[in-house]
Amino acid sequence: MKRILLLLLVSALLLSAAAPTASVTCNPLELSPCSSAVLSGARPSAACCAKLKEQQPCFCQYKKNPSLKDYVNSDNGKKALKGCGVPIPSC
């Protein structure tokens, strides 16, 4: 149920997602491999870590989005970032 809600919220964001750099397209659906890590605190998979690193330039944009900020700012979200060696955004 939580995954469905997350995917619905992320889908809504797709309509307003913009790329902050030419090399990365901000697409929160790319973070779907991280759903179990963010929603339940599971250990992030290698696929999750790769996507977190890829989408890192987008995190400030995600933090500003009302539909996504609770996931990015959550303890489990921060735990996933830390587990993958990705810095927590300070924006």
Secondary structure layout:
Layout: H1 2-14, H2 35-40, H3 46-55, H4 59-64, H5 69-72, H6 75-83
CATH hierarchy class name of one domain: Mainly Alpha
* Biggest sheet layout: none
Topology, number of strands: 0
Mean pLDDT: 82
Coarse shape: globular
Keywords: Lipid-binding, Signal, Transport
Protein name: Bifunctional inhibitor/plant lipid transfer protein/seed storage helical domain-containing protein
Organism: Ensete ventricosum
Family: Belongs to the plant LTP family. B11E subfamily.
Brief sketch in words of this structure:
The chain has about 90 residues and is mainly α. About 55% of the residues lie in helices and about 0% in strands.
What does the model show?
The longest helix is centred in the N-terminal third of the chain and has 13 residues, at 2-14. This protein has a domain at 27-84: Plant lipid-transfer and hydrophobic proteins (Hydrophobic Seed Protein). The chain has 91 residues and is mainly alpha-helical. The protein has helices at residues 2-14, 35-40, 46-55, 59-64, 69-72, 75-83. The protein is built from six helices and no strands. The chain is globular and about 25 Å long. Residues 1-23 form the signal peptide. One of its GO terms (molecular function) is lipid binding. It comes from Ensete ventricosum (Abyssinian banana). Residues 28-91 form the Bifunctional inhibitor/plant lipid transfer protein/seed storage helical domain.
